[in-house]
Design goal:
- By secondary structure, the chain is of the alpha/beta class.
- It has a single domain, classed as Phosphoglycerate mutase-like (Rossmann fold), CATH 3.40.50.1240.
- The protein is built from five helices and six strands, in the order E-H-E-H-E-H-E-H-E-E-H.
- A six-stranded mixed beta sheet has the order 3-2-4-1-5-6, with helices on both faces.
- Helix 1 runs parallel beside helix 2 and helix 3 packs across helix 4.
Length: 216
């Protein structure tokens, strides 16, 4: 008798909006919490996943990720696990204002950090981000085999993972990332093989149409 491979889904959830009144690149800095809107987004995602077969909720150790994970975990009666490999990428500009017009990128002292955008030279290498994110997803897949897991992480790690598992080059234009606040990038596995990638924005959909009960 042939045994059909199990179907497992690992959802990668980007954290909600962060309270950041000074507009710095907060990166891995501690004590950056969700804003009021971010907490609302986390609650909306939890409602959207209420009927999903979640058996594990795992988050980056950073406060904004832990707070985003909490409503979904509570709704399913699960603890929030921590996986350090889901953390935000390291960045030399952490704690600085680096938006256009701030002048940081025009300062010659920072030019050595910008010498290689393909690695990138200003922070954690894309290849290392992809490696650790793949490891975190594999642990989540094994833990939730035959069910679903929710992993809460950050924009660049999730987008780098998606490009990696899709066989795309890892360097990219940040303006083209499909990874909005409180969005879900869902990896569907048949056995251990990745067979489908889905992208949804459940917080936005729920805000537009609260009657929806399951987006996936």
């Amino acid at each position: 008798m042939t045994v059909e491979p199990t179907r497992t889904v690992v959802h990668l959830l980007r954290h909600g909006e962060v309270h950041n009144p000074t507009g710095v690149l907060y990166g891995r800095l501690p004590n950056f919490r969700l804003s009021d809107r971010g907490r609302e987004q986390a609650g909306l995602v939890a409602k959207a996943l209420a009927d999903n077969d979640l058996v594990a909720v795992i988050a980056s150790p950073l406060q904004r990720a832990q707070e985003t994970a909490a409503p979904a975990a509570e709704a399913h009666g699960l603890p929030v696990g921590v996986d350090d490999d889901l953390i935000e990428s390291a960045n030399r500009f952490e704690g600085m204002r680096t938006s256009p017009g701030d002048g940081a990128l025009r300062n010659p002292r920072y030019w050595p950090w910008l010498r290689n955008p393909f690695r990138p030279s200003w922070g954690e290498p894309y290849a290392e981000i992809a490696r650790r994110m793949r490891a975190a997803v594999e642990r989540a897949r094994v833990a939730a085999e035959g069910h679903e897991a929710l992993c809460v992480s950050h924009q660049l790690p999730i987008w780098t993972l998606r490009r990696s598992v899709s066989g795309q080059r890892l360097w990219h234009d940040p303006r083209n990332r499909q990874c909005g606040l409180a969005s879900l990038t869902s990896l569907v596995f048949t056995g251990s093989a990745l067979t489908e990638i889905r992208y949804t924005e459940p917080a936005t959909a729920w805000a537009d149409d609260p009657s929806r009960t399951n987006l996936l």
